[in-house]
Design a protein that fits this description.
Layout lengths: L14 H13 L2 H35 L8 E5 L4 E5 L6 E9 L5 E4 L15 E7 L6 E5 L6 H10 L4 E9 L2 E8 L8 E6 L2 H7 L12 E5 L4 E5 L2 E5 L3 E6 L2 E5 L7 E7 L2 H24 L23 H15 L15 E3 L6 E3 L1 H19 L8 H13 L4 H65 L1
Helix pairs in contact: 1-9, 2-5, 2-8, 2-9, 6-8
Length: about 475
Amino acid sequence: MASISTLGVGSGLALGDILDSLTAAQKQQLTPISNQQSSYTAKLSAYGTLKSALETFQTANTALNKADLFTATSTTSSSTAFSATTSGNAITGKYTISISQLAQAQTLTTGTTQKDSKAAIATTDSKITIQQGGDKKPVTIDISAANSSLNGIRDAINKADAGVTASIINVGNGEYRLSITSKETGADNAMTISVSGDPALQSFMGYNGTSTDASNGMIESVTAQNAKLKVNNVDIENSSNTISDALENITLNLNDVTTGNQTLTITSDPSKAKKAITDWVDAYNSLQDTFSSLTKYVAVDAGADAQSSSNGALLGDTTLRTIQTQLKSILSNTASSSSIKTLAQVGITSDPSTGKLKVDDTKLTNGLKDSSAGIKELLVGDGKNTGMTTTIATDLTSWLSSTGIIQAAKDGVSKTLNNLTEQYNATSARIDSMVARYKEQFTQLDVMMNSLNSTSSYLTQQFENTSSKN
């Protein structure tokens, strides 16, 4: 079969050019389909951008949707011997703190040394039992004779999760001691160690709860003890240096003993709520920028055949418009049981031309200082059904869910794209079949015209010869 480039050679007709023109005309049917594919692909990507922007705003909204922000406090200690953290509704005020003793974890160390940390101590298999306090279950560790070196005992104890850690101390002159330390502080976590099986191992590391002769068993190198302190002159004893039950919603962290009485001051801290609010406003404004970008409209001259290619992919999109409208409605139609009814009352106003929010720093600071409870009621409400950020949180969860309006819109676009792909492939196949049929017909025409031309030339030549003879 002749190629397009050789069509018409036999007939002298421009069949190749005609076929090219016919092909180009048919291929134009693919252009609107291709344009739709590009448009819907851009829309699918735009939904991804919209979802990402909503998730960023959701993070800021979640951070603000906490009642504790509006009762937040800060702590100041007059001594480095202790610090404090607060949670919930810690009461502001001053507390007198005096620390006489820190809690300690008990450490036992072998009284005798070993010349080689890898040499076995026992000649028979043994069991080491570690008991901490009277209310904890004892832990028994199997020690084979071959694994009874300092290294072997240390590793076996550390693998047993016995509530203690074992280590080897190089005391110099090529001598080593085994040291065992409780993981928890306090007198109740003091330990006893018993060994059954090998007398040498029992003699080396047994401990019955009292310091023994340094040449027989382990000795207490660090005593297990509780923290002792006074808070407002009230005696407190605790097994830990982190004390969370002495003062309501206040955790004390003890670092050292004090010299005389020191002071812990708890004050209101509106800076946490203020930062959460300003971060929320910034995230909301960023979301508005995304809305504007996705719905951008560029005017074209009257009578133009198409819209500008610079238009946003979601221009006129109902999903985006629904989200935008509902957010605006929540911000402007709040229901609060406090005297603070609107964002404007605390210095947060909206620009009608852009939809963005603007914060009056001074007014917000004063509002948090004077009416933090009212602002909390406006923004957080009861945390379930009322409050601006609570309502927004519910809507965001719905919009972003696997069954929400964004996913539904994406599914719709994906389905349309699949249909367009099928339509494009079917149209392209039909065009290819039509072009092939034209090519076959043109080839036959070319062959036929070539044959007719040859016959015509032959007959003309014969007539000329006959005329010449006559």
